[in-house]
Amino acid sequence: SDGSIRLHQMTSEHPLMQWNGSTKGQPIIALQWALTRPAVFFALDASSNIYIWDLLENDLLPVAKQTMPSERVVTMTLLGEPEKANGLLGIVLAKESGHIDIQYVKKKWALP
């Protein structure tokens, strides 16, 4: 609820990494690992900002941020085929109006 992200290992109650204030205090409403690239995850905050984290590129800050200004995004999920090496990865965004938007991710964050 405060925008903090914690990375846990299943065998420990203490986080391996913790990022405080990663969304400047906005609650995170969705977070998901990339299906095609294990070191990448995406976070959606309550202000409809999408943050892309690539832990191999930078483990302190997100590598990109995209604001969805037209309409509030209420949730997101990712789509892709991890068993294929084509690097196709998409973000499915559900908007407050009920519309669904699909956007494809740059290959550098999608390729295995």
From TrEMBL:
SUPFAM superfamilies: WD40 repeat-like. One of its GO terms (biological process) is intraciliary transport. GO terms for molecular function: dynein heavy chain binding; dynein light chain binding. GO terms for cellular component: cilium; cytoplasmic dynein complex. InterPro entries: DYNC2I1, WD40_repeat_dom_sf. PANTHER family: CYTOPLASMIC DYNEIN 2 INTERMEDIATE CHAIN 1, WD REPEAT DOMAIN 60. This is WDR60 protein. It comes from Melospiza melodia (Song sparrow). The lineage of its organism: Eukaryota, Metazoa, Chordata, Craniata, Vertebrata.
